[in-house]
Structure formats: structure tokens, C-alpha cells
Amino acid sequence: MVLKNAHILLGVTGGIAAYKSVELLRLLKKAGANVHVAMTRAALEFVGKTTFEVLSENPVLTDLWKGPQSSVTHIDIATSVDAALVAPATANFIGKLASGIADDALLTTLLAVTSPVMICPSMNTDMYQNIRVQRNLDILEQDGIHIIDPDAGVLACKTVGTGRLPEPWFILDRLCAVLTPKDLLGKKVLITAGPTLEAIDPVRYVSNHSSGKMGYAIARAAEKRGAIVTLVSGPVSLDPPVEVEFIPVQSCDEMARAVFSHLDLADIIIKVAAVADYKPVAPGVLKIKKRQNSKELSISMTENMDILKQVGKLKTKDQFLVGFAAETNDLEQHALLKMEKKNLDMIAANLVGTADSGFKTDTNKVTLFLKDGSSKDIPLMDKEKVAHILLDTIIEQTG
Ligand code: PMT
Q1: pLDDT at position 248, please?
Q2: Could you give the CA distance from residue 13 to residue 18 in angstroms, rounded to a whole number?
Q3: Å from CA of 5 to ligand 1 middle
Q4: Calpha distance 175→35 (Å, rounded)
Q5: Known catalytic residues?
């Protein structure tokens, strides 16, 4: 969301990972950013300028003296960008940036940038670990430059170690984090997401259709807004969000243990998980075999703990508690009842069983009901956007 219509300077320096910058540019454009690319002479040895020109739909800055641009173009770019990102950043570039050297178009432009600057070092492991490179990175960090640590893996020089440029989606995610206003800075947010799995026997279970998308979107949004996020998640196929404490669980009992061990420190608790209300009384130790003489099988179920209700009983006046209500009918009536019974500050009610809202979908249609009797309709939109509106509302309520 923060990248829509944002002006970004993408610097490319001369490393083998320069090819990944093409994908990074594509993702930036897809997110709606207006991108100006600046390449060093060495970068041009790895990837052609035309590729960046076509994809960015802007002239590429390579030289302060040649080309169609006037000599002040680099200053125009520097003063107009919302952020500058250099990926990959070589040892040579890092050294020069740390010393304030401005002997090419990219370095000169960066010296005039006053908005956030993020660099992604990428090089051979020994070079990366070299004390001079590390010293330069320390200087840049102290100067307020955002540094994305390289990944470990097989490098172009065939060695295995730290130095790979992280994947473009990850760099984009971190750039979004840098650009997002920190209105939840330092707040501790505890979120549950996904389904729970209640074992019938070692190979079968009772569960539901929750994909985790809604809860994970809230965790990602809160982290980007500066919160310290703990995500307790039932089994889903999503990657854990970046920079979030992640606690994978299976059953309601495990989820409850994780929630209660983190509850005291939490400022905001958001329970998005679809917890099974019932679990088998006595899960089989061995696989239940198919019966020869009967076409029916009954499994006795017993009630699970209502984690949210317990949290509602324990919460302090300084903690803000949000529940979700997944309903197939009478949304408002059921949601308001749950809010009262579970002592919630807010409940997010969504219809499930519809095509584009609720379980598994990328979009959701939610109504937020507040303790003071007010409500807010969030029309159908991406779960990412729903997450931000939900957090906006919590911030409004908590001051
Ligand atoms: O994961 P997705 O595919 O993105 O789908 C999102 C969602 C539909 C799962 C989500 O938006 C949602 O509605 N989550 C709540 C699902 C649910 O279990 O609702 P409920 O009405 O049964 O429960 C009400 C609240 O009590 C929930 O906050 C739930 O976490 C909590 N609860 C319920 C039972 C229980 N034993 N313990 C609980 O804490």
C-alpha cells in the first residue's frame, strides 16, 4: 500500500546479483511505485541499461555528464524520492558511501537524498566478513542507513556462505516496512491465526477451512507499523511473517498455552484463529481401523477451552482485546453477543461461506463493532487493507 505512487530511487551496483534487481524493479512497478534507476559503470557490465529503462518507464541515470538529462537531474531525483534502495550493494560502493565519496551518478545522487536509504550488501563471504567492509557497514548503520543483511547459500564464486542478495519479495517487504509510519512503535501485539487441529487418531483430525491469511495480514501490518508482534499460528501453508515472533501450534490446548504464556506482556490481543469448539474425548493411540460390521462411526467430542473468553476474564484495563466472529447468518446479533460474553473491546465480524469473503480468500468484508456501541463497515477489500483499517481503529480507541 505504501508503495502506491511512491517515488523510489533504485541503485544498482556491479555485482552478479544485479540480475535480481530487474525482478525487484518489476515488483516495485507492480506495487504502483514510480521508479528511477541509477546504475554504476560496473553494473552495466552485468545487466543492460535498456532493460531497466523499459521496465521503469524512466531514463536510467548512469553518468552525470552524458545523456539526455540536464546536469541537475540527479538533484531533482534525490529531492523527489520517498526512499532510495541500492540492491545489490558492492563492497566498493559501501566503502565509498561510508566515506561520503561522490565519484559517480549513483553516489552523487545518494548524497543529496534526505529520505530513507536502504542498501542490500551482496558479495563473496570473505569480502563481506572483511573487517573493513563490516566497519563501513557499521558507519552507515550509525548514519541511519537501513541495511538488509545478505542471505547465506551457494554464491556465484561456488563457495557456500553469507553474501547472497535476499529474494526481491523480501527486499520489497523491508522497503515497505521502512516507509510505513510507526504508529504502533514498541506496542506488544499478540495475534492468533489459522485453524486448530484436534486429533481423532495419529492420522486423522477435526479442523476447519482457515488459511491464516487474515491473521497473518494483521501480523505483517502491525510489524510494519513498529509493533513487537507475536503470532501464534495453527497449521497453515503460509510463510511466517518477517521479523515476527512465530509460535506454531496444532491444537486448541497448545494454542491456549502459547497465548497465556505471552498474555501478561501484550498491549493488544487479536484473536483471529478459528479454534475448534470441540475435540475428540479420547483420541486413538493407534489408527482407528475400518469396521467390517458397521457402516457408522461415532466419535465422542468434548468442549475445548474458549481461549478468548478466558483472556477476556484475565485482561487488565490497559490491554485491548479484539475477537473475530465468523458467522453464516445474523452477523450483527451473534457478534454483539460474543463481544459481551467474552468481555471484548472490539469484535471483527465477517460472513463465512461466501465466495470472496471469510475463509481462504484474499479479500474480506468485515464490520467492526466497538464496546461503546459504534460500528464501522469495511467493504470488500484485500485482507492486507482490512488489517490496516482494523489497526487504525485500535489506535483510535487506545489513543
Ligand atoms: O484464515 P482465513 O482463511 O484468512 O479466514 C479468516 C477467518 C474467517 C478465520 C477470520 O476472519 C475469522 O473470522 N476468525 C474467527 C473464526 C472463529 O473461530 O470465529 P468464532 O465465531 O467461532 O469464534 C469467536 C472468537 O472466539 C474468535 O476470535 C476465536 O478465535 C475465539 N475462540 C473460539 C473458540 C475457542 N475455543 N477459543 C477461542 O478463542
Answers
A1: 98
A2: 7
A3: 35
A4: 13
A5: 157
Residue 68 has pLDDT above 60, yes or no: no
Q: Name the residue type at position 374.
A: S
Alpha helices by DSSP H, listed for the chain, are 18-30, 41-46, 49-56, 73-80, 91-99, 105-111, 125-129, 131-142, 168-179, 213-224, 252-262, 307-314, 331-341, 383-398
With a 6 Å cutoff on the Cβ, whether 352 touches ligand 1 is: yes
pLDDT level of residue 328 (50, 70, 90 thresholds): confident
Cis peptide before 280 (omega within 30 of 0): no
Instruction: Quote the mean pLDDT of the chain.
Output: 95
252 lines ligand 1 (CB under 6 A): yes
* Predicted pLDDT of residue 76: 86
pLDDT of residue 67: 59
For residues 303, 304, 307, 308, the Cα torsion angle rounded to the nearest 10 degrees is -40
313 Rama sector, left if φ>0, alpha if ψ -120 to 50, beta otherwise: alpha
**What is the pLDDT, as a whole number, of residue 296?**
87
Q: Are 161 and 152 in contact (CB under 8 A)?
A: yes
Q: Give the H or E element holding residue 376.
A: strand 375-382
Q: Which residue has the cell 563471504?
A: 125
What average pLDDT does this structure show over 368-372?
95
Domains of the chain: 7-179 (3.40.50.1950), 188-287+296-398 (3.40.50.10300)
What distance in Å separates the CA atoms of residue 153 and residue 168, rounded to the nearest whole number? 16
Eight-state DSSP code of residue 150: P
CA 271 – ligand 1 centroid, Å: 7
Rounded to an integer, the average pLDDT of 224-228 is: 98
CA of 388 to the centre of ligand 1 (A): 19
Instruction: Render pLDDT for 168-223 as a digit per residue (tens, 0 to 9).
Output: 999 999 999 999 999 999 999 999 999 999 999 999 999 999 999 999 999 999 99
Distance CA 8, CA 84 (A): 6
Report which residue type is found at 216: Y
